[in-house]
Amino acid sequence: MPIRSLKILATLASSLVLALWLMQHNIEQYWQQTYYRQSPLAALQNNALWRSGDALKQELGRLLGAGGHHAASIPVPVATAAAKTVAPAPQPAPADDTPWQHRHPIAANTYLPAGQDWTHNTIQRVPRFNSDDNPASDSTALTLDPDIPPEDTTGDTAEPAPAGKTPIRLGEGDRVLLIGDSMMQSLAPHIQRELLARHHIKSINRGKPSSGLRFPDYYNWPENLATLLDENPDVRLIVVMLGANDPQNTPNPAAPAENLHFGTPEWEAYYRGEIRKILQTAAARGAQTLWIGPPLMKAPKYSKKITYLDQLIAEEVENAQQHYQNTNRLFAKADGSYTAFLPDERGKPVAVRKGDGIHFTGPGEKILTQRILEHINP
């Protein structure tokens, strides 16, 4: 074979290895989403050099503001690490007339205080602000609704705890445990910095990418939470962000060869039970819970499913008299629909969601962090 051909083959092979090294997380996402088992690359996860490729990609994404860890267009990210067992083959998603869509109508004013609506977001975009993906330049005019007094939505304070709910009061000797999926893993450092700066409270970040409550064979959050709290008895608050990976069928615990179909009464009963396990595990060890609901998503069908989950989570958290932070109201247009951009204090559009339509940008995470901190030592 000519030397030139060998050089071309070597270049192609090197490029392929480099792409696999950097895109390992996205490849694992796709493989788990499609085949419900670990990819062949998962065997390399024990190698620190191999894992450094994903870390490098995350850092480059942060520096470039390009979405980093989850820039893939997969609607629901799935696992990066090896699953313990192989899950059953995924079943077809339920049709549009499945019960959950009717039993839980999605209203724009869900969880808003009485008498309020989505017009809390008083800064309206003019027609030149064409789309969420293509915002106009910084010179784009923004106008205030003349019928509504100006209000800074990013500074909207958390609602006071209802009667019967114990406020979250922490001292310097208490610790906070942050658990959840990749959204929490990225959000947690912001919360940790603010907790330390404002209240001198140390915290633990235990975000697990691609985890959720619907597939315990990959990562069993109730069991792992119990272990984490037993190992850290000074934790007095857990902050949870789970749900983004959960609008799918789930293996039936009573018949592992079968699936519970998303949105059916059986699926909902199972999912509510998993939420309660988290709340009860924390309460049994003297810790309060602050649950951050999953936000609206860019893909309409995905967003509708997420809003359904958001309602289930909120109901269970409220029934347990724990604390809940709805994100739909915080990251939405005036009509309650998804937006990737919010105006800053000068009225200029700032990206608060990444290009995948799922995760938050740094500015978005800072907005959410401010709201979360308002629940603590009010």
Account of the protein in words:
With 378 residues, this protein is α/β, with parallel strands linked by helices. The protein has two domains: 3-70, no CATH class; 99-373, 3-Layer(aba) Sandwich (Rossmann fold). Helix content is 36%, strand content 13%. It contains nine helices and eleven strands. The protein has helices at 3-22, 24-35, 48-64, 99-103, 182-199, 221-231, 265-284, 300-319, 362-373, and strands at 123-125, 142-144, 175-180, 202-207, 235-241, 250-252, 255-260, 288-292, 323-325, 341-343, 349-351. A five-stranded parallel beta sheet has the order 4-3-5-8-9, with helices on both faces. A two-stranded antiparallel sheet has the order 1-2. Helix 5 (182-199) links the parallel strand 3 (175-180) and strand 4. It starts with a helix and ends in a 5-residue tail after the last helix.
Name the poorly predicted regions. Answer: 32-37, 65-98, 103-157
The CATH topology name of the largest domain reads: Rossmann fold
Helix content: 25-40%
Give the CATH level 1 class of the largest domain: Alpha Beta
Run of helices and strands? HHHHEEEHEHEEEHEHEEEH
> What's the alpha carbon Rg, rounded to whole Å?
22 Å
> Which whole number gives the mean pLDDT?
75
Gap between N and C termini: 73 Å
Count of alpha/pi helices: 9
Strand order, main sheet: write it out.
Answer: 4-3-5-8-9
